[in-house]
Amino acid sequence: MSSLHYWNYPTEIFCGPGALDALAERCKLHGMSNPLLVTDPGMLALEPMVLIKAHLQQADIKFAVFSEIASNPSLDDVARGVAAFKAGQHDSLIALGGGSAMDAAKGISMAAVDAQGVEQYEWSSVIAHFPSLADFPHLNLPRLIALPTTAGTGSELGREAVLTDSEQNIKRVISHPELLPASVILDPVLTRGLPPALTAATGMDALTHHIEAFCSPLYHPMSSGVAVEGIRLIQQHLCNAHRDGDDMVAREGMLVASAMAAVAFQKGLGGVHALAHPLGARYHKHHGLLNAILLPYVLVANRETISTDIARLARYLELKQPDFDGFLNWVLELRQRLGIAHTLRDIGLDAEEAAWVGEQALADISSSDTNARVLSAADYSQIFRNAVYGVLSGVKP
Ligand SMILES: [Zn+2]
Q: Which residues of the chain have pLDDT under 50?
């Protein structure tokens, strides 16, 4: 690693320290003459923003910055972004940041062209009306270049966006093939400033994507293969990136693993995300942190169905104890080394809303169709209670 790579699967990807240098040329090749640069407010004064601005200005590319987005971008944020996009007569988008910037940019892209798009392409509607890529109408959405500054969501390689509906306190997942960015720039220099706690939480989000995709019952061996190697990259790099933010090899490894996860989870996600989505919408906790805490409890709930596959994975990871318990203990130890809480109670949640959480988890896109086994609302409520109180039955945490 640590030289420049060009890949074109599933879209074009520039990877390595200095990959950012490809940005201006890609803008020109994609016909992006006046992009709206979407980022979160915390990014405005940071190094990645300074680098990108300088890069675009040097290349004489006109642009404006839109940063009025929350850490879980809402439909209101998207509406403000659409207004900025139209007022500035922008023709394209650049997303700089973590999942929130990516998702907001995708939401703006969709809503700028189709005011009803967020409803029309919400996942439940997509399943009913657009069962294959060819079923989607061509929308001619604005071109989007994605530059992640975190290694976690993988949104830069996804055709989906997760947006919060603040009125109903739920997350809406929209999906359209044209939401896949035209170019992705994975430059580890852009993730250098990510603090250790966020490196940990986002890295555990990427790990959860791979594990849930790997355990999904859908038949998709290509994605399974990506998941297995993605988990190995996280095993190799996450603790190093957490310990030393300037370790460019570790930062690059995590960026690649995170991006790969979006390819892996074409196979679907599972119970961890089904629970984390409503919890994130209601309690405004970091998505990756919620996943990191929930992951072992969902693994235990799925144990019977996944233990053979997990044992195979544990052998690939060369764990000392290559079975389900060995893998679970590896996850628990990794979490501990990253300073992540063991229970939801540790981050201020209680079990009062367990029934609501169960119903919402069941209704989530990541629920029982792709979770390793069918879970009921009552099962989800129980897993949630277990995660609040730290009950990992049958194993020692
Ligand atoms: Zn996630």
A: 394-397
